[in-house]
Amino acid sequence: MTEKKQLTDLEKDRVIEMAWEDRTTFDAILLQFGLKEQEVIDLMRTEMKPSSFRMWRERVQGRKTKHEKLRDFREGRFKCSMQRQINNNKIAKR
After folding, report:
1. Out of the domains of life, which is the source (predicted)?
2. What number of CA atoms fall less than 13 Å from residue 6's CA on the CB side?
3. Which of 23, 27, 31, 78 is disulfide-compatible with 68, CB 3.0–4.6 A?
4. How far apart are CA 19 and CA 12, in angstroms?
């Protein structure tokens, strides 16, 4: 493996947060922090409790949304049809 990039605690927290998010791809983490998928996995393994790491690995294993090439959509953001609109700092009622 190549030389590991030294991350600050704040950067580690952000990488972990992005890795937990279902719709944030490993490609986005690579672009922002320069960490490949395996390096993210290694970081998660060292920074998380073993039970939390196992739960995370089960969630992301083969998940299409974590891999840019497997996604159904290419551009824009996913928006649920049930998501509420926010207008003038107020959430619209359904």
Report:
1. Bacteria
2. 0
3. 27
4. 10
